[in-house]
Structure formats: C-alpha cells, structure tokens
Amino acid sequence: MAIIAPSLLAADFLRLWDECKMINESEAEWFHLDVMDGRFVPNISFGLPVIEHIRKTTKKECDVHLMIVEPEKYTTAFKEAGADRLTVHYEACTHLHRNVEMIRQLGMKAGVALNPHTPVLLLKEILPYIDQVCIMSVNPGFGGQQFIPTSLKKIAELKQMIRESGYPVLIQVDGGVSVNNAAALVNAGADVLVAGSNVFKAENPTAAIAQLKKAGSFSEV
Amino acid sequence: MAIIAPSLLAADFLRLWDECKMINESEAEWFHLDVMDGRFVPNISFGLPVIEHIRKTTKKECDVHLMIVEPEKYTTAFKEAGADRLTVHYEACTHLHRNVEMIRQLGMKAGVALNPHTPVLLLKEILPYIDQVCIMSVNPGFGGQQFIPTSLKKIAELKQMIRESGYPVLIQVDGGVSVNNAAALVNAGADVLVAGSNVFKAENPTAAIAQLKKAGSFSEV
Amino acid sequence: MAIIAPSLLAADFLRLWDECKMINESEAEWFHLDVMDGRFVPNISFGLPVIEHIRKTTKKECDVHLMIVEPEKYTTAFKEAGADRLTVHYEACTHLHRNVEMIRQLGMKAGVALNPHTPVLLLKEILPYIDQVCIMSVNPGFGGQQFIPTSLKKIAELKQMIRESGYPVLIQVDGGVSVNNAAALVNAGADVLVAGSNVFKAENPTAAIAQLKKAGSFSEV
Amino acid sequence: MAIIAPSLLAADFLRLWDECKMINESEAEWFHLDVMDGRFVPNISFGLPVIEHIRKTTKKECDVHLMIVEPEKYTTAFKEAGADRLTVHYEACTHLHRNVEMIRQLGMKAGVALNPHTPVLLLKEILPYIDQVCIMSVNPGFGGQQFIPTSLKKIAELKQMIRESGYPVLIQVDGGVSVNNAAALVNAGADVLVAGSNVFKAENPTAAIAQLKKAGSFSEV
Amino acid sequence: MAIIAPSLLAADFLRLWDECKMINESEAEWFHLDVMDGRFVPNISFGLPVIEHIRKTTKKECDVHLMIVEPEKYTTAFKEAGADRLTVHYEACTHLHRNVEMIRQLGMKAGVALNPHTPVLLLKEILPYIDQVCIMSVNPGFGGQQFIPTSLKKIAELKQMIRESGYPVLIQVDGGVSVNNAAALVNAGADVLVAGSNVFKAENPTAAIAQLKKAGSFSEV
Amino acid sequence: MAIIAPSLLAADFLRLWDECKMINESEAEWFHLDVMDGRFVPNISFGLPVIEHIRKTTKKECDVHLMIVEPEKYTTAFKEAGADRLTVHYEACTHLHRNVEMIRQLGMKAGVALNPHTPVLLLKEILPYIDQVCIMSVNPGFGGQQFIPTSLKKIAELKQMIRESGYPVLIQVDGGVSVNNAAALVNAGADVLVAGSNVFKAENPTAAIAQLKKAGSFSEV
Known about the structure:
The structure is a homohexamer. Chain A has about 220 residues and is α/β, with parallel strands linked by helices. The first copy, chain A, has a single domain, classed as TIM Barrel (Alpha-Beta Barrel), CATH 3.20.20.70. The first copy, chain A, contains 8 helices and 8 strands, in the order E-H-E-H-E-H-E-H-E-E-H-E-H-E-H-H. Chain A has helices at about 15-25, 50-55, 75-80, 95-105, 150-165, 180-190, 195-200, 205-215; strands at about 5, 30-35, 60-65, 85-90, 110-115, 130-135, 170-175, 190-195. The first copy, chain A, has an 8-stranded parallel β-sheet. In chain A, helix 2 (about 50-55) packs parallel to helix 3 (about 75-80) and helix 5 runs parallel beside helix 6. The longest helix of chain A is centred in the C-terminal third of the chain and has 15 residues, at about 150-165. The radius of gyration of chain A is 16 Å and the shape is globular. Chains in contact: A-B, A-C, A-E, B-D, B-F, C-D, C-E, D-F, E-F. The interface between B and D is medium-sized, with 13 and 17 residues.
C-alpha cells in the first residue's frame, strides 16, 4: 500500500490554506514540496518562506524535494522551515554522503533523487545512509509531463538492489503518476507516489487522492 | 507623491488571495514581487508559478524584482507569468544593455537594481535605456532588515544624474522603508517606495499603506 | 560496413568549399563537425556561422558533435544551422534525457558522447532514447592524437549492451581512427568511423576515405 | 584617418581564401577576428584552427577580439595562432592588469573591450597598460545589429580621458559601423572602425571598404 | 605489508621541520599532503609554497592529494613543487583520462580518489592508466573524522576489480585509519594507509607510525 | 608613521615558529596572512590550519587577506582561526556590504582589497563601512613581483576620497613594497606597508623590518 504524497507545485497558490486543508483531510500521508532554483532545473518554483507557511497548517510529514545546486547551503534553513524529509539530487552533490549525513544529523529523513538518465547502480555506496530514493519519471522542472515508460524497469531494478542490501529504503516515484500507472508502479516496487497535476487539476482532488491510494494498494506482490 | 509598492515577500503565503485583495483595495499602485534563486542571493523565495497566480488577482502593475543570476534565461517566462515591470541586478548582468532591451522588446518596463555597495555612477551608460532604478537600501535576500542610512545620499546623487541626463527614470527604494523614513526618501529623490514587513506585519496593512502613501507625499521639493 | 564521417576539424579552413566538395564526391556518408567552446574542452574550434555555410554545400548528413557545456542553450540554433544529428557529452549534461528528447523533438537524431574514462554502463537508462553513441578514443579537444587502445574493449562492451537492449543505436568511434585500426573497430562493434587528420592530412583525401571505407568493411562478424 | 578593420564574422566561410585576398588587396589595414565561446556571449563563432589558417594569407595585422571567459587560458594559444593584437573584455577579467601584461609580454598589442553598458571611467587604472580600447556599439554576439546611438558620446568621453592621460591608446568601434556613421565616429574620437556585414554583405566589399575609409577620413578635428 | 603515509594535515605547522624529520626517521614510507582549495572541499588547507618547503626535507615519496577543482591547472606546478605522486578526484575531473596521462607524462605516479558515495565501478575505464586509487573513508575536508564502515566492502570490491584487470594499481585508504582498523583494511585489500590525527595527535607519533605499520602487516591473505 | 605588516607568504614554512618569533620581536605591528584558493588567484597558498597555528604564537594583530571567491563561506572560520582583520576582494564579492558587515559583526576589522585595474571610485559607497583598503600594487597570487608604478597615484586619489568622506579608513599597500618606495608610498597616503620577499628573503629580516619602518616614517606631509 503506497504512501501518497501530493505535490503542491500544481496547487492554487492563492489559496494554499485551502489546498493544505484538503490534503490534511485526505488519505494522503505526506506533503511533497518541490523547490526549484532556476539553476539545477530550468524553473524557479518556491522556497523557504512558502514552506514555512505550509508547515504551520499540517502535522503530516513535509517531504521537501530540493531541485537545487549546492543543497548543503540550505539544509539547515529547510530544517528550520519545517522539513521532515529532505531529498537532494545525485547530480547536484559532489559530497553526497556528507549531505545526507548532515540531513540526518539535523533530525530529518534523507533522500536522494535520480534524474531519468541516471542509473540506479550509482546508489550502491549511499544506500546504507539514506531513507528514500526519488526516481524521477519525468525530467524535473515542470508539472504535467508524461511518464517516462522505462522508469518502471528502473524502479524494479532499484527494488532488487534495496532488498539485497537489507537497508529499509523507500522508493518514491515523481512525475506523471496517475491512477493509470499507480498499480504498475507499486508492483514494480514503488513505496511512495508523488502526484501533482493529477491531483490538483482534478475536479475533486480529495477523490483523486483516494483513487490514487486505492490504485496504489492493488499490489500483486 | 511616491508610488507605493508593497512587497509580498512578507505576505501570508497561505492566503495570497486575501493579501492581493487587500493591496488591490489599498492606495498602493504596484505589486512588488521578489524572486530569489538561492544563487544571486542567499535565499530562495518564490518564482513563476506563484507570480502567475498573483497576476490573476489584479490589474495593478506587477513589478517583478529578479534577484537571480543570468536573468536573460527567464525574461520571457516572467513576461508570460504576467510581469509588467522587470528589474535585473547590475551585479548579475554581463550584458546589461541586452537584458534591458530584451525586457522592453517584450513590452515590459525595464529596471536595474543596485546592491548597497554599488555606486550609481556605474549606471551612466544604461540610464537612457531603462525605466527605473532600484536602490537596495538593505542587502537583498531577506525581509525585515534595517535601512542602510547612506542610501539617502545615494538616492540624491542618482536623482541628480537622472535630472542631468533628461531621461524619465524612476527611483525605487527597497529595504527598511517605513513611515519614519518615507518623507526623507522622497525628498532625496525616491519615486517608488517598496515596503514589505512594515506593511504586512502591521496590524492593519491597508492603513500602513495609507500612512506610507501620506508620509511619501510630504515632499519638500 | 561502417559509415565514414570525416571530421572537418583537420580541413583547410581557407577552402572549405573544396573540402566539402571532396567529401560530397567521396564514399563518406556523413560530415562530422566538431564544435568546441573552450569550456568543456581546452580548445575553441568553430560554431554556428561556419556550420551554416558548410550545410549549404551538401545533402549528406551533417553530424554535429557538441563538445560544449550546457548544450541545451544551443540545441535549437544548431538545428537551424543545419544539423541532422546532434551529439552531446554525457559529462556535460545534468538533464541528459531532457537534452536528447529536445534534439529528437526538433527532428534531429540524438547522440551521446563518452569521454575515455566514462564507462558505458552509465548509458543504461538513456539507450532507449538515443540514435548513436560516440565513443571518444582520444581525449576530446584536438586532432591528431593517438588512439587509446582500451577503447576497443569498451566498444565491444557497448555493442553487447545495445544488442541486449534491442534498441537500434549506432556506435561511433572518434579519435585516432585510421586504416590500421578500422577493421578492428568494426569487428568490435563500431558502426561509424570518424576520421580527421588521417583523411585531411593525407596526400589524397578521397582515396584515404575510400581506404577507410574498405578497411571498415572487412568485418569478421 | 581611421584604420579599417573588416570583421570576418560576416564573411563567406566556404571561401575564406578569397575573402582574405579581398581584404589584402583592399584599403583595410587590419583583419578583425571575433572569437565567441558561447559562454561570454550567446554565440559560438570560430577559434584557433580557423585563425591559424587566416593568418597564413596575410601580412596585415591580425586583430583578435576575444569574447570569451577566462581569456588568460588561451592567450598563448592565440599568439601562436598568429594574433598581433589581442583584446579581452573588461567584464570577463578578474585580473585585467595581469591579462594585458601577459598579452604584451608575448609580443602582442593589448586591448580592452567594453560592453555597451560599461562606463569608460572603469578604464582609469588600465589605460597606461593597453594599446587600444574596443567600444562595443552593439551587444557582442551577433553581426548585423543596429548601432547604439549613445556610443558616440561614450567615444568622445573616452577620447578626452585618453588625451588627458597622455597614453597613446587607440579607440576602436565595433558594431553597426557604416558609411553613414563613420565620419561621426571619427569625429567623436574613433581611430579604428570595425565593420562586418556592411563590408561582406555589400555587393562590392572592396568598394565598401574604400567608402568606409573615405568616410572615416573626413574628420573635422 | 601496507605502506604508511602520514598526512601532515594534522601536523604542527609551526614546526614542520621537526614533523618532517620525525617522519623521515620513522617507518613511514610516504609523506601524504592534503591540498584543499575551499571549492572542491569546504576547507582551505595548504598548497604550493608549503609543499615546496616540505619537499626539501625528505627523500621519501611525496604523495600529494589534490582536493581541488580543475586539477589540470596546477598539475605542472605541483610537479615543480616536488610531488612524486599526484592524486585527483574522480568527482572533480571532466577529462580524467587526460589528467592522469598528463600526470604520468610529467614523471609522476597518477592516482584517482573517490568520495565515499562514488562506486568503484566508475573506475573501470581508468584503471589501466593509473598507479593508485584513494578510497576516501571519510568525507574529504577535515581531519579527525570517524571511519565510514562500508568502506571495507568497497575496498574489497575494488581489490577484486584490480586483480581481474591485471593492472598493478595500489589501493590507498584515507580517513579514520587507526591501529584498530588497519589489519581489517589490509585484509580487505588496502596497500597504503594514510593516517593524520592518529599519528600527529598521538603522544609518540613515531611509535604510532610503527604500531600502524605493525597492525597493517598482519594480513590474513 | 606607517604600520609594518610582514607577509608570511615568503616565510620559511618549515620554521614558522622562528619566523613568527622574529616578527614578534621586530618593529612590525601586524602579521599579514595571504590566503589563496587557486580560484580567485592562480595559486594555492595556505589556509585555516596554518593560520590557527600562527595565531598561537602572537598577540600582534593577525591581518588576513582573503584572495578567495565567495569569502562569506569562510568568514566565521577565519574568525575562529584567529583573524583580527579580514580583507576581501572587491572583485570577489557580489554582496560586498553584507560581507563587510558580517566581518564587523564577528568582531573583526573589515577590509576591501582592489586589484591593480580596479579604480578607487568603486569604493564610494562602501567606505563608511570598512576599516581598511588594500591597494594591490602587483597582481595578487605570487610574491616577489615588481611594484606597479601607477599605484602611487591611485593611493593618493584614495587618500583624498577618504579625507573627504571623513571615515577613519586605513590604506594598506601590498606588492613590491621595499625601502626604496616606502617613503613615497607613505607620502602618497599609505598607512600600512605589507612586505613579503623584501623582509623574509633579506639577510636580516628584523633589520629589514626596522629599515622599512624607518623609511615609512619620513613622511613629508
């Protein structure tokens, strides 16, 4: 049964209070917050002051996805803004081990995200030190993109690696997730489903979350 | 009589609809939107998706202040998000003339911002091509900082340069602006007063704007 | 039977018309055009205006090899200059999947080049989305260097990966290619042979191309 | 009487031999060679191998304009490629004095180029150590742009500075130079006129050079 | 029997003559010199002038570990300062093969260092061209850190790769090395033990080196 | 009467204890410590661990000159290492005012250094916030270079600016300072003389300092 983490990138930024309330009352377990700096990715989304406010509305887990360069510069600031989970990109970190250790020392769960072209075998040495891997199933930077189909195989391969390693690392999928592929993703090994447009652009977001939750619970395994 | 441009950096991001409504019904003429990328300044504030939403709430001028590196990468995107005025930093632009020309060609008013240490004489060649100069009277990156007192003299010096040049360039002051220094700023030459915390952290923001407007209208000149 | 792609890096830049005519009338199938920006590689070769001109002389495929950082900034420009095939470097791309998708969406064939030290296993996730891989058998930046012998094994390993993947991806070899190693390269799995100095510094370039073509057709496989 | 320096950026790159011959037989005194790296300016033009070839065709002065970052990395290489004069950009040099000293120590004349927005007063400390200043009268990166009219005043101001300094520094103008503004430029203080499209796109380039030469010789001063 | 390479990062910089004398008279075979530039790692340690002086005190091998970006800029300088062995970081080199070839051409032994998160399989193509691999068993930048336990497995995996390759490449371990883990490290495959604080902060550094030497010689293999 | 600040860049790094003792017992008032990161300048000298040790030997003022990029990253670390005065480069600081405020808030005196080509008029806005200006009279990066003669006029111009401003800012001269130009420098306005090779390469460094002190005290003004 997958954890559902709606991404607020597609929310109505004029009424975040209502959007947060909706998530709080929904079946979603986490808030997924996409921070983009215009450097690592070709978009600038939102950052610290917005997250600080969102944090005040919820007791659910705030899962912050840093699509930024030099994430070590802002690790403490995001902790203070309220992040419970902090994910950095493999492609953005020269000292990935130091980064995830710092995240954990500050009391957060540590995640590593992989761009679509980055193979999971590069995670071999870091798996023992992290709590989650975020498989980007679209290129990071924008909402509303189409799911990259080879991501399924990538998730399965990562699941295998994690099982063999014995470390309790969650697999998160981010990009193009919908009720149409949720079951397949969970079957491949996904533990957390991030969904943006498919939740917030739905007529009934609460129902969309419930459907995703349901779709993500019909695991064959 | 100075134009008042409340900066939404200090707004309640959970209720932007209400905050925008307040500005719309206030005496403020412009919305001031502070975009920070975590690279040019040590903070990540908000960017395109947030501004797109704010744009929908107002017919007042959206004055976007880019505290980002390589602003040319995002000039078109900010136009599309709804900017009427776009200000780039002198310190961030290798090709400042190209940048402001591009802003104007897209139909926006072009501004150049100066960090506190940057002297106004560096604007000599660019004055004919811009609509406004933003004098940073605090170091950009955070709200709630104290006004740097030598900014007054800097504004006066710039006013003199602009008068001699004959170009109709507005002077905007950003940082630590309050009812206490508004009159002095306007007397020194300021045409636009940006205020963040002193508006949004006030008990009555609408009244705070009105007071600022009033304070900024007692010009001796 | 390998495709021959003469690299114009070693051509006579005073008489490109004649050099292009020679290739057009030779057995070579592609023009290989090496763009160097002085940043990704320690040399600045030639770029857009030169390629635009070369494009006008030929109906053969223009295969442009970008040895530049941030290739996404110039993808559209190289399409407009006439590139049919556009290769970017693995080491230069944070968002490799986005880059090759953009190349294909513009109607070009997409390639990924690997520096000598970069292992082929890093291509695992990108193979389904590309048309060719360029194995650098010298360090990129200069013509006339000696072939790195371990490249043969690398080509063979990549061939194996491609066969197993089932995707129709061509293997291109670039650096120190000559009649002496052409057969071995093709036997190892090379589909496209790039040759610069060994063509243009030859007494009879047309004949050199023919010899390379012949050498590259004695495949044992 | 101004020196004429045709810029080969607008030449026919398929027939550089003929283009160079034309300049050699014309009234032009210098070859102007625009090197662009895609980093300092948003274009990649041509570099070392092209200049090496051009050098062989002429005994006229080769005036190389580096629109590149970190020009110190390539100073020696451009000397070896045949540059007689090497110009670096003020905006690209952290150690401008070191750069121009290195250029002179290698036996070349040293120049500093200014982007349109950069005021001439920034040259105060470097004037004693250079041979020429290049005033960009368009934004560097592309040929065929329109002359920025305030450049005239900038040239006049620089001329005044140079006269007062007593150092024999030439003023070069680059961008939108034509027979229409040549006289005005020379009157303002220009010593060297760079012209690209207005020479090479003319029906008769030799005549265009002669006309420019003539227009640039009717100085009022 | 492992080679012992004391790292002078933890030495008394006021009395380097004495510290070097101590190493010279000890059982240590190499001097290990950690150069940090404040860019690749978050510390600035020491560089060329310090190493030049140390070089004069010893005939033992000077093993210089460059924790710097763009090491190619300083390769020749470190040779001239007296390095016998020069190690660059995998994560810092776009053209790793060119870098190690340059090191060897200058007459030094070439090494590649891996940050804790970097898997050894990335060394596949470079192994034939290097003399040593430095496995960082702490995050580079500071002395006195705790050994990362999964480094043992990483060493064993690398040892296996080297054996299979047939190339005579030494494995060096750097970070948290002490008498407590020296035997385990050597058993896993380490050939060279770097030790800093555990030598220089010991009451008797000469004895500490001897103990390390002894601990590193009880190999089970 | 000028303050003498010997630069340890030219000291014997094997015997820093003795070198520091010599300065302590000399007429020199400050220790000048040149930190180079290989990025801002083309040399890597020494950094935090070396300065920490030097600090322990003296009660004289430790004047640290940061020839590094992004000095804000290391401001606190240099304070902790023992700096009393911290100088950053104008050319290295996007937020110069913030940097010097941070230095002062940590209890250090703040300085700004200018490369030879940087005009003093750029200091106009920062003078009220700093304690000293370092005029580089050679290009930073190496000891033993020749004094750039136009530095004298630059010092005089800065002295004039400082007098007119009324702020108590010291002028420091760094590069090629010797008994031959000390008097001229002080007459031009220098308050602090930095000397490296001319002290430490002298037969009698203590005497060299005394001579410099004496030469620097014959001010005509």
